[in-house]
Design brief:
Layout (H helix, E strand, L loop, with lengths): L6 H7 L1 E16 L6 H11 L7 H21 L4 E3 L6 H10 L6 E21 L5 E21 L3 E8 L6 E6 H11 L4 E4 L2 E5 L2 H9 L3 H14 L6 H5 L5 E15 L2 H14 L6 H8 L11 E8 L2 E8 L2 E8 L3 E8 L14 H23 L7 H5 L3 E3 L2 E3 L7 H12 L7 E2 H11 L9 H13 L3 E3 L5 E4 L1 H25 L9 H19 L5
Parallel strand pairs: 2-3
Antiparallel strand pairs: 1-6, 1-9, 3-4, 4-5, 5-6, 7-8, 9-13, 10-11, 11-12, 12-13, 14-15, 16-18, 17-18
Length: about 525
């Protein structure tokens, strides 16, 4: 089997299985009416008919809820596990899951004390000195009850309840476990990868199952288990509209590409890490996430390469969103985008927005791979020189050359690399503003006529295209490749190579300069023996 030489070869010829799927989802369950003080007042006074609102009333609901949990645990003989500080809950869950035989049920209930936001009443005094209760939102350390369960459709998940008003809950599920359960239900043979699928007898059906994991299915899972487990609100409360709604706290969107052998993955990361350490620059983040980055954009934009146990991973940050890429179990390339705040992309947090989040997450994964493929494989565009570097006729019109050695052409290509894949393209003014500094000029030194000429020849060579019914342009796929080839070949081969071969400072020695001196010596000797004048 031949050894792949580039990222493109690895992704095109050495991937045995590819699947896009939701990975880990962390959802918030909340009662919308109880998120504000006035809503809480309405719950107790208008709905429950209480004269005043106080912590005593909340405590009664808490006592009833905790009593129901203890009764549920005892009735079903479910272990109650107190979580110690710093203890990994996932490790405990894995131990219980390994010995659990039923297809569906509660494995155990964990209890931990955590600091959360709650409502309480405090005593205040009016002008006459009389005290009265006043509702405030504050924080407190209260018991959290983790119901670790197994569902016939979704596999392992947990549902966490707060034991104090307003009884916020959290649902954590895993899309890859959902995939495995669905494959088993349909009797489709597969081999499991830790938190993934290594191989499958029907890859197309596998991807179809992953795509079908919708907001409706996830909400059905939540409703199903809310009806089975102890509930803080009574049936009358729920009938009055005090029901849990779901919102997205965190969602991971993954692209798993199983490779034919471990060596392929190592070669991928060697190439990618060498070429893409600058992906955290704002213009790269703009490409990958499809969002415009300005001076007012909060957050950090960075790339980190982390090597643990000699297994590298690439991490990219944008606001509260992260992309992680790593070699999973030495068998698969995993690229996953984790959205921690949907508002980073001007999308609401309600679960109904999951289709829009999917589009962003999967697109970010694909764009990262596109950047890596194009950046690493720009050397493959050598044949472009023949077309771009000479003037020629096209449809009866002369097309000016884009000569490789021309500083203005290099500056144009550098600007195109920065403008790549912008969602709304770029204008002549934006190109001028970017081009001028690359040429060491101010914007007013670049005339509109010259800018029109540059845009025209870029269009004639197919490097840019006009956005319909606008005066804006976007970089084509070919244009991005050509611009990357021009800029990388010039910066990394020509400029760097000449600086070593012809150093400015006498006495400077590099491996390339030494090699050229040996070549000159050998050529002089050859010419001397052949009696050819130097």
């Amino acid at each position: 089997m031949s050894i792949p030489r580039s990222v493109r070869e690895i992704l095109q010829g050495h991937v045995t299985l590819e699947v896009e799927s939701i990975d880990r989802m962390y959802l918030n369950l909340y009662v919308p009416q109880l998120q504000r003080e006035l809503g809480v007042v309405g719950f107790f006074r208008a709905h429950r008919g209480e004269r005043i609102v106080s912590s005593i009333l909340m405590g009664r609901i808490t006592d009833a809820f905790v009593t129901a949990i203890r009764a549920f645990v005892q009735a079903h003989q479910i272990p109650m596990v107190p979580f110690a500080r710093g203890q990994r809950k996932d490790d405990i869950a894995a131990t219980f899951l390994a010995g659990y035989q039923a297809r569906e049920g509660v494995l155990f209930v964990g209890r931990a004390q955590e600091k959360i936001s709650v409502f309480r009443t405090e005593q205040r005094r009016d002008r006459e000195g009389k005290t009265y209760p006043w509702l405030v939102r504050t924080s407190a350390v209260v018991n959290q009850y983790y119901f670790y369960c197994r569902d016939d459709e979704f596999g392992p998940f947990f549902l966490k309840f707060s034991s104090y008003f307003p009884y916020a809950a959290k649902l954590c599920l895993n899309g890859h476990e959902y995939l495995k359960r669905q494959l088993e239900r349909e009797s489709i043979p597969y081999r499991a990868l830790d938190n993934g699928v290594l191989s499958c007898a029907d890859p197309q059906r596998l991807q179809a199952i992953a795509a079908a994991l919708s907001a409706e299915r996830i909400e059905a899972l939540a409703r199903k288990w809310l009806a089975r487990l102890p509930h803080p609100f009574t049936a009358a409360d729920q009938a009055a509209g005090y029901r849990y709604e779901l919102s997205v706290l965190q969602c991971e969107f993954s692209l798993t590409q199983v490779l034919d052998r471990p060596q392929t993955g190592r070669l991928f990361f060697e190439d990618v890490i060498r070429e893409n350490l600058d992906l955290g620059r704002p213009e790269h983040v703009q490409l990958i996430f499809g969002r415009r980055v300005t001076r007012q954009t909060p957050g950090r934009f960075r790339t980190r390469v982390i090597t643990e146990d000699v297994t590298p991973s690439l991490h990219l940050d944008y606001k509260h969103t992260r992309i992680k890429q790593y070699h999973k179990e030495g068998r698969a390339l995993r690229t996953e985008t984790t959205i921690n705040d949907t508002r980073d992309f001007r999308i609401g947090k309600r679960l109904k927005n999951l289709p829009a989040l999917k589009e962003i997450g999967y697109a970010a994964n694909r764009r990262l791979l596109d950047v890596q493929r194009l950046t690493a494989d720009c050397r493959d565009g050598a044949e472009v020189l023949a077309t771009l570097g000479r003037p020629h006729e096209q449809a009866g019109r002369r097309v000016p050359a884009l000569r490789f050695e021309d500083p203005r052409v290099q500056a144009l290509c550098g600007a195109l690399v920065l403008f790549r894949l912008l969602p709304h393209g770029f204008s002549q003014r934006e190109l001028r503003a970017q081009l001028a500094p690359l040429l060491g000029l101010t914007s007013d030194r670049l005339s509109p006529g010259r800018m029109t000429y540059d845009l025209r020849r870029l269009r004639q060579h197919g490097m840019i295209e006009r956005v319909p019914r606008t005066h804006r342009y976007r970089v084509t796929d070919f244009g991005l490749r050509a611009a990357l080839f021009y800029t990388r070949a010039y910066a990394r081969v020509v400029r760097r190579g000449l600086s070593e071969v012809v150093p400015r400072h006498p006495g400077t020695s590099t491996r390339l300069a030494s090699a050229f001196r040996r070549l000159e010596t050998a050529m002089d000797a050859f010419c001397a023996t052949a009696d050819v004048a130097a």
